[in-house]
Write a structure and sequence with these properties.
By secondary structure, the chain is α+β, with helices and mostly antiparallel strands. The chain has two domains: about 100 residues, no CATH class; about 180 residues, Peptide deformylase (Peptide Deformylase, Alpha-Beta Complex). The protein contains seven helices and seven strands, in the order αααααβββββββαα. It has a five-stranded antiparallel beta sheet, sandwiched between helices. A two-stranded antiparallel ribbon has the order 4-5. It is globular and about 45 Å long.
Length: about 300
């Protein structure tokens, strides 16, 4: 009960704060804030999420209509403010929904190993961690061991078949060198405006038939923001924030995608995806040979 009530106050407070800055929408914001609070207390998560989405769409349409009757500068500023408030509200709602379905005590069998595309666990929902105990520490230790043994710089829990919101990384990729990061229940607060392209690989996407000078993983260009601000918890459950830039920001976003069930080729352009399509098909055939099951997804269906 404590987690439900505590979570519900955050979007309610932020919405009411936004309403003070935008008088024209204050009634809608206050009303939706009250409904969010009431729905949360009685466990109506689906209802308040639907109301929030409806409010967001209605508020945008309303601002567009009123914008024609105002000066361009004032109307645009208020419209952008409402859009920003909606974005923050939806982020808070997502956080509450995740916390409402926690993982509980972790259960997994050692030794762990990296699972390969197209294993369905790479697309499964990853649960919010709410128990910070020795089992979590064991999982973190094993993830670092696997990451270093496979020459990786980052690893997400679903990549070892444990569907919880946990990632580890070390930009140097070597034990005893660089700094190790453990991020529990991370979320992105803000993306930077600048973006760049970089060749990314992934431990869940090994090259099956390697040439003499070929990388061990399937690599291709992915475009991402160059910086992010994130919130997370440490191994003890303490909350903290980080501003990540350049390579660290890219590592984090790659691993965060895993926590969202997104794979790096989902972010590639069709032209770039075509360059690795045959390698992905090899992994799909390998999965079918190893499991005797049809591949849960096929890259050939993406055009």
């Amino acid at each position: 009960m404590q987690g439900t009530l505590g979570g519900s106050l955050r979007p309610c407070t932020s919405l009411l704060h936004a309403s003070l800055s935008h008088r024209a929408s204050s009634l809608y914001l206050a009303n939706i804030g009250q409904r969010l609070f009431i729905a949360s207390v009685f466990g109506g998560h689906n209802r308040y999420y639907h109301e929030a989405m409806s409010f967001g769409r209605a508020s945008e349409r309303g601002w567009r209509r009123r914008g024609a009757q105002r000066t361009l500068g004032l109307g645009t500023k208020r419209h952008l403010a409402v859009v920003a408030a909606k974005r923050n509200m939806l982020t808070e709602l997502q956080s509450i929904r995740e916390e409402a379905d926690p993982a509980g005590p972790l259960e997994f069998e050692s030794p762990l190993d990296v699972i390969l595309y197209p294993d369905p666990r790479l697309r499964a929902k990853n649960k919010f961690i709410n128990v910070f105990d020795e089992k979590l520490q064991q999982l973190v230790n094993e993830m670092f061991d696997i990451m270093y043994k496979t020459d990786g710089v980052g690893l997400a829990a679903p990549q070892v078949g444990v569907n919880v919101r946990l990632m580890v990384y070390n930009p140097m990729g070597e034990r005893g060198s660089g700094q190790e990061y453990v991020l529990v229940n991370p979320r992105i607060v803000k993306y930077g405006k600048s973006r760049d392209l970089f060749d990314e690989g992934c431990l869940s996407f090994p090259v099956i038939e390697r040439g003499p000078n070929q990388a061990p993983t399937i690599e291709a260009e992915v475009e991402r923001p160059k910086s992010v601000r994130i919130d997370a918890q440490d191994i003890k459950g303490k909350k903290f924030s980080l501003n990540l830039k350049e390579f660290q920001a890219r590592i984090f976003q790659h691993e965060y995608d895993h926590l969202e069930g997104t794979l790096y080729f989902d972010r590639m352009t069709p032209e770039v995806l075509d360059t690795i399509r045959s390698e992905l098909e090899r992994l799909e055939r390998l999965y079918e040979e190893r499991t005797g099951l049809p591949s849960p997804e096929r890259i050939s269906e993406r055009r």
